[in-house]
Design brief:
This protein has 516 residues and is mainly beta. It has helices at residues 2-19, 140-147, 473-476; strands at residues 30-39, 59-66, 69-80, 86-95, 106-112, 121-122, 125-126, 150-155, 160-162, 164-165, 167-177, 185-191, 194-201, 204-205, 210-220, 223-226, 230-236, 243-245, 253-256, 260-267, 275-278, 283-287, 297-300, 308-309, 316-319, 324-329, 344-346, 352-357, 372-373, 399-401, 407-408, 413-414, 461-464, 488-492, 510-514. A hairpin with a 7-residue loop joins strand 23 (297-300) and strand 24. The longest helix has 18 residues, at 2-19.
Length: 516
């Protein structure tokens, strides 16, 4: 009777292992004892942003395959080094009795963490990494812990392996309009029409008008995102109307490198006035305008939910990549002509994107209806001009127009001279000019567009719908001096008296006509 019970127990045990996917090995393997030291790589994608920190429960899977069969495999257990960047592992490996193991036998090493979510263990072996398509982590550290694929290779005789990260991560930090996203948010990444990732996140409520969603999605290193056709879409849970943000990481084809991470930090704007957006961490913004005299300037760091008056000259506002500084004011002019500073400066000349309706700077309410700009309103506003001459400037490289929320210069009429004179002079990183819809800039005075884009060496696109004064030297004098050699100039259909050259349409540029 005892023998029958013993056999039944063994059968039950075998069945339970089979259900768990742990098929019993039929071949009898010999045991090989092995101990090694392992170091974490020094990737950006790590728990402390310098090296991987080993955790209690980490194991090393060591293997060697021949003819598709594992002839050497097994786990080494962490013996010491938890909470450190170097650890010691030890354990027994299974070795095919017919296999001639030497110290020069090639072996592969995989780190398997206690919280590992991409490796599957079956029959004492580790399968290839499988990245999820419907999961995310609430933080970068959690993502590294769950979705890292650390590997190393060497020989059996090696006593030290350096692990290299094979995963890539995208960190998302999205500020959204609370009215449109009152609860959970469905986030999808599409490559063309294919949905490559889909997750649902619960956002953090920032204030009465905004929510914030921060999370990390893992990718296999080497995955390609087609920048032109890959985009991020977000929608309220249960909604059929997504909002599309494009592109995700880059405007062109982009390979997510192993051992790296990327940040998508984008707001969906509820603010439509003028703003400055940082593209790099550690950006410091200073403005030369404070209260008193000609009106005030106010700023907001929460999409206009709250405002602070800019009261101390050259006070420093700290921004990280993706942070948005919204601005409004009651000044009639931001003239920096013959001044030592532009309207704002970025410490270290870190690239900033500007956009929104510039009229919020001169009319802190109802700017959407303002179509008249006054004398010297933005004369050299973004230029470090130090004089009136065409060459009296210090070239700067930290300004471009936000491609998603373009800078609007909506003035249709001018009430004085030099309104946009030298506005972007020397902005060498400016690639696309804001549209200029005013029909008749030469109604009185001169210099409205003089030197406006002079020395913008990267500028390659301008749209100006003027229908009078276009051949007046004072109005457009050297306005496109020293811009990019080739580009596209869009003019109002039927206007034929544009001159060719730096005071009109640059030679070598393609001309396109528009009705409005």
């Amino acid at each position: 009777m005892k023998k029958i019970l013993t056999i039944l127990s063994l059968l039950a045990l075998m069945l339970s292992c089979s259900r768990a996917g742990e098929s019993p090995e039929l071949k009898v393997y010999k045991t090989v004892h092995y101990s090694v030291k392992a170091s974490g790589a020094s990737p950006k994608a790590s728990l402390d942003e310098s090296r991987y920190i080993f955790e209690s429960g980490d194991r090393l899977f060591v293997s060697h395959y021949e003819g598709g069969e594992a002839v050497l495999y097994g786990f080494l257990t962490l013996m010491s080094g938890a909470s450190e960047s170097t650890a010691f592992f030890e354990g027994d490996l299974a070795c095919d009795p017919d296999f001639d193991l030497t110290v020069s036998t090639p072996v592969d090493v995989v780190l398997v963490g206690e919280n590992d979510c991409i490796h599957t263990i079956s029959s004492g072996k580790v399968s290839a990494a499988s990245y999820p398509d419907d999961q995310m982590a609430s933080s970068f550290a959690e993502a590294v812990s769950k979705y890292s694929h650390f590997t190393a290779s060497g020989t059996f005789g090696s006593e030290h392996f350096t692990l290299a990260q094979q995963s890539a991560f995208i960190n998302f930090d999205l500020t959204l309009d609370r009215a449109d996203f009152p609860s959970d948010i469905e986030v999808g990444i599409r490559k063309g029409s294919d949905l490559v990732r889909s997750v649902t996140v619960t956002p953090e409520v920032l204030n009465s008008s905004s929510v914030r969603a921060r999370f990390t999605i893992p990718f296999e290193g080497g995955s390609t995102l087609l920048g032109g056709t890959s985009y991020l879409e977000v929608k309220a849970a249960g909604s059929n109307t997504p909002v599309q943000l494009d592109p995700i990481v880059a405007a062109a084809d982009f390979v997510l490198a192993a051992n790296n991470y990327y940040t998508v930090k984008r707001p969906i704007f509820s603010w439509d006035g003028f703003f400055i957006k940082a593209t790099e961490d550690g950006t410091v913004i200073s403005m030369r305008y404070a209260s008193g005299g000609d009106g005030i300037v106010q700023y907001s760091l929460d999409q206009g939910a709250s405002w602070t008056e800019y009261t101390v000259a050259d006070s420093r506002i700290n921004l990280d990549a993706g942070d948005v500084l919204c601005l409004r004011g009651t000044r009639s002019s931001y003239n920096c002509y013959q001044g030592s500073k532009p309207m704002f400066t970025s410490a270290g000349d870190k690239l900033c994107l500007i956009g929104g309706n510039i009229m919020s700077l001169i009319c802190n309410s109802d700017w959407s209806y303002k179509t008249v700009v006054g004398q010297d309103a933005f004369n050299c506003a973004f230029s470090k001009s130090s004089g009136a001459g065409a060459d009296s400037y210090t070239a700067i490289s930290y300004i471009d127009i936000d491609p998603d929320y373009k800078l609007l210069l909506p003035a249709l009429f001018f009430s004085g001279k030099n309104c946009y004179k030298g506005m972007f002079k020397g902005c060498t990183s400016l690639t696309i000019a804001p549209d200029l819809p005013a029909r008749a800039p030469q109604t009185e005075g001169d210099g409205r567009y003089q030197l406006m884009f002079a020395h913008c060496t990267s500028l390659r696109s301008v749209k100006c719908l003027a229908n009078s004064g276009v051949n007046n030297r004072n109005c457009f004098s050297d306005w496109l001096l020293d811009v990019n050699a080739t580009g596209t100039f869009t003019k109002l259909s039927g206007v034929s008296d544009w001159t060719s050259g730096t005071s009109g349409i640059p030679a070598g540029w393609t001309v396109v006509e528009a009705n409005q």
